[in-house]
């Protein structure tokens, strides 16, 4: 069964700040790629996609993992492909990490979806709408509060 996991961002944590949230997204992306998953990082727009691609390049050498933007890189891509709402993954990916703040229409194309519930109230409401869409698409749903020591 397809699975959608919503990570809940708590106020007053590093993930509630932009840089901390980006670091957490990079951590999750690397984590799933190291497990062998073909990950698609869905950004809001081209600028955000390019920003995350650059963030992957700025990591320490021991943390580096190959990645590419949609349309770049080898024919079957790397374990991590980065795109945005106006493009599609180059080929089948098992897992999507959704950073786009919209009502997604891709739910049925992935076996596993990672999404986020931000602190800000309007963004939180949009996350609730995405949650409903995943449920309607037949996904098994779970929520995880991001724990920070």
Provide an overview of this structure:
The structure is a single chain. The chain is globular. The chain has a 7-stranded parallel beta sheet, with helices on both faces. The chain has helices spanning 18-34, 46-57, 121-136; strands at 3-8, 39-43, 67-69, 80-84, 95-98, 112-117, 140-145. The chain contains 3 helices and 7 strands. The chain starts with a strand and ends with a strand. It has one domain: DNA polymerase III subunit chi (Rossmann fold), CATH 3.40.50. It is α/β, with parallel strands linked by helices and 149 residues long. This is DNA polymerase III subunit chi. GO terms for molecular function: DNA binding; DNA-directed DNA polymerase activity.
Tell me the layout of helices and strands:
Layout: E1 3-8, H1 18-34, E2 39-43, H2 46-57, E3 67-69, E4 80-84, E5 95-98, E6 112-117, H3 121-136, E7 140-145
Parallel strand pairs: 1-6, 1-7, 2-4, 2-5, 3-4, 5-6
What is the total tally of β strands?
7
Q: How big a fraction of the residues is strand?
A: 15-25%
Q: What is the quaternary state of this protein?
A: single chain
Instruction: State the domain count.
Output: 1
Distance between the termini: 32 Å
The outline comes out as: globular
Mean pLDDT: 87
CATH class wording: Alpha Beta
InterPro entries: DNA_pol3_chi, PolIII_chi_sf
GO biological process, one term: DNA replication
Organism: Vibrio eleionomae
Protein name: DNA polymerase III subunit chi
